[in-house]
Amino acid sequence: MSQAQASFQTFGLSKKLLRGIEEAGFTEPRPIQAKTIPRVLQGEDVLGLAQTGMGKTAAFALPICERLMQGRTRGTRALILAPTRELALQIEAETKLLAKYTNIRTQTVFGGVGAQPQIKGLRMNPDIVIACPGRLLDLMGRGNCINLDGLEVLVLDEADHMFDMGFLPDIKRILKELPEYRQNLFFSATMPREIRTLTDRILRDPVVVELNHSTPAETIDHALYPVEQPDKTDLLNHLFRERKFESAIVFLRTKHRARRLAQTLTNSGFNAIALQGNMSQAQRVKAMDGFRKGHYKILVATDIAARGIDVARVSLVVNFDMPNTPDAYTHRIGRTGRAERSGEACTFVTSEDFAMVKEIEKRLGSKIPRIKTAGFEVRDAPAGVQKSGGGARGGGPRRGAGGGARRGAGGRRRAAAAPAGRSRRGARGRGAGAGSGATTQSGPTRTAPTAAFGAGAFDSAKPKNTTGSSSSGSRRRSRRRGRGRR
């Protein structure tokens, strides 16, 4: 028996499911799986509060599959509601993988594609239906499309996002059409008041599984990049050229700007693709498949389109536009640092964004480091952002031993820039290339001190400065500021 089978066998799962678990690459249960699977198998209602990327799908899919294997009845026995098409497809793909050696059948239901293939699939009485609320409600209204009279289990995944998207009225209408006696499983990364009210009304004496749901994973390094609005695209190009990353997601507020930015990055030599609401379902599937397989290294997306994306190798998230709420910030950066991997979250901030920065920092319980990049100076930097012309090459959080700022190409340190023994000469400073901006940092970090975030480097009472520039660097910055004002 393999390690995976031995670990999951403690739940009493069947051999067919254990075989699927092993082939899926699972080694041992994640925390939310260890806490949730036994309670679901016992038939209890569950309220799961956990960050994205914690293994929630297997936490409900495995016990549901085990239950469905214990006896067959005609009609759909499990309904899983998800906010987006992408998430619905991901849930189905993982469920099929885990149930590969069973006879369990699934059907997805979502808009943006023709309804007839979905209606045909529903009339074949699949065991599990994974649906978006809007299309499901439409098909339920047509009659004879879906049989939910024998429903045994209801799952709401990412319930908070369904509320954000305005699905709450649809969910309430769907609930009225379901059998009264059923098992309910609600999962959410955050718990808005409206969702709490819904759970209080629907769940029966639920088991609450809570895993730091209100804050991002500790494997993520955070950084703020003050920048003028017209310079954001240039700064993004600079970051991508200076950094080594497996893959990245860039978030914007509007679908039109997401499409334009993806094209701009492509023209600049990056493998980038957009994911936004105006794309057809075939285009969205093509974009996601290309991103997962590595054909595209950068995904430029809106919040709604990208919610539920689960790509383990995303190592960098860039908030090109500031998210509207701390919850949105948590959801966005939750695309990286998944499955206990490390990740970076870089947020571009203008002078209009710092009210939201304060709210996000309050949620995190600590200040986020400010990274100042030479050539992208903000004319009137908000309080707490240190003005400087040099600093760490490439700008941004780095992991590893050591500390202190590094000088940029041609830059000179002040004698008091860092304590003796912490400064490290920028032997790689010239590697940044002509025109690349050096960076400095200010403000405390919520993670352990690293090479860029040396101990004491973000003393908010007495921030440390690193200044210096070459004449060519000054000319470059002058030209960039001139372009930004035009």
Question: Please, could you describe this protein's structure?
Answer:
The chain is of the alpha/beta class. The chain has two domains: 3-211, Rossmann fold, CATH 3.40.50; 220-246 and 313-485, no CATH class. The chain is 35% helix and 16% strand. The chain has a seven-stranded parallel beta sheet with strand order 3-4-2-5-6-1-7. The chain has a six-stranded parallel beta sheet with strand order 8-13-12-9-11-10, sandwiched between helices. A three-stranded antiparallel beta sheet has the order 14-16-15, with no helix packed on it. Helix 3 runs parallel beside helix 4, helix 4 packs across helix 5 and helix 7 runs parallel beside helix 9.
CATH topology name of the largest domain = Rossmann fold
Q: Report the CATH superfamily of the largest domain.
A: P-loop containing nucleotide triphosphate hydrolases
How far apart, in Å, are the first and last alpha carbons? 68 Å
The spatial strand order of the largest sheet comes to 3-4-2-5-6-1-7
Name the beta content range. 15-25%
Number of domains: 2
How many β-strands, per DSSP? 16
Q: Enumerate how many helices there are, as a single number.
A: 17
Q: Which CATH architecture of the largest domain would you pick?
A: 3-Layer(aba) Sandwich
Q: How does the major sheet shape up?
A: 7 strands, parallel
Assign an overall shape: globular
Quaternary state reads single chain
- CA-atom Rg in angstroms: 25 Å
Sequence stretches where pLDDT stays below 50 over 5 or more residues: 384-437, 442-486
Note the topology.
Blueprint: H1 3-9, H2 15-23, H3 31-41, E1 46-50, H4 56-68, E2 78-81, H5 85-98, E3 106-109, H6 116-122, E4 128-131, H7 133-142, E5 153-156, H8 159-164, H9 168-176, E6 183-188, H10 193-202, E7 207-211, E8 220-226, H11 232-242, E9 247-252, H12 255-267, E10 272-275, H13 281-292, E11 298-302, H14 303-306, E12 314-319, H15 326-333, E13 343-349, H16 354-364, E14 370-373, E15 392-393, E16 438-442, H17 471-485
Parallel strand pairs: 1-6, 1-7, 2-4, 2-5, 3-4, 5-6, 8-13, 9-11, 9-12, 10-11, 12-13
Antiparallel strand pairs: 14-16, 15-16
Helix pairs in contact: 1-2, 3-4, 4-5, 7-9
